[in-house]
Here is the input.
Amino acid sequence: MNEDITNISWRAPSNIALIKYWGKRAHQLPDNGSLSISLEKTSTTTTLSFKRKLRLEKNISFEYYFHGNRHLRFEKKTERVLNDLIPKMPFLTDYELVFQSENNFPHSAGIASSASSMSALALCLVSMEEIVNRKKLSKDPFFQRASFIARIGSGSASRSVYGGIVSWGNIPFIDPSSDDYATPYLIPKDSRFHQLMDIILIVSSKEKTVSSTSGHALMNDHPYREGRISQANSNMSKMTNAIRNDNYQLIGTIAENEALSLHALLMTSSPEGLLLKPNTLHIIEAIKSFREITGLDLFFTIDAGPNVHLIYFEDQRDSVLPFVQDTLTQFCEDGQWIDDKIGNGPELLTHEIEF
Ligand code: PMV
Here is the structure.
């Protein structure tokens, strides 16, 4: 390497879990397995620029920009992650790094961006690692490494390095599966899952009152901790069977049970976390009645916040869009919603670098 600056850009998607990761052990290892859908539009693009330091020192030197402006809060979070990564990526202290990151969803939409941002960051770092080590990885080891690195930043980010349906966590009946990194959950070519759509209904764009970091920590002494782990394992087993058998009604029932369980766990934590809003409940009620009346295979899921994901299939779109416009947008902040769907995973935006 010479002193020239090298740039790498990756776009990485957000994901929404159908089986929720909630509770973790040391080094961001999950208490239970999880399963998510990687989204197509909702994503983060990160450019990493790096050049070799003139004087070698042991500390990390970097700056973090968000939508063009230096962002000190994200910089602090990134600093913690980069310091955790030094033992795994010792070359990091030999370079000056600049991260420039952008989300393509409204900044204040109340949508968790740690999955897409940490996964974009990890992909940039693994590309950098290839360049500085002059060693190109083939596709599978590259993404496995990126998932492993993303996990250090945010557990759910480990799943965002892949498209489609993704599992994370050591699950006896999913092979391969690991607590260390996520793996793509392969579904048959003709499965209806490839037509999965997600409408994100923005109930509140305010920052969450309980961060997922503190939420996970609340699980350590939670009275229902053991029960939650066995519920998640049982739901994972039922969900994978339902996917195998194209049982979409059951898939919806399990996903809704997972979303409500996540919030029930939050509400029964000490101190408690109440993240649902009255409009979240109005939307849930409306989705249930619409399903009952129409018999469509649609269902909801919710992240650790008040916003609702309405999951449905492309062939139902003509019925779902008027329902969203006429019935659901009244419960959304400023009528905001995001039209998304299952996506193909991250994208390298710069050219492959020859070395
Ligand atoms: O990755 P974290 O630490 O932000 O945790 C995410 C937890 C949930 O979003 C609530 C569930 C999940 O599996 O994505």
The chain has a mean pLDDT of 94.
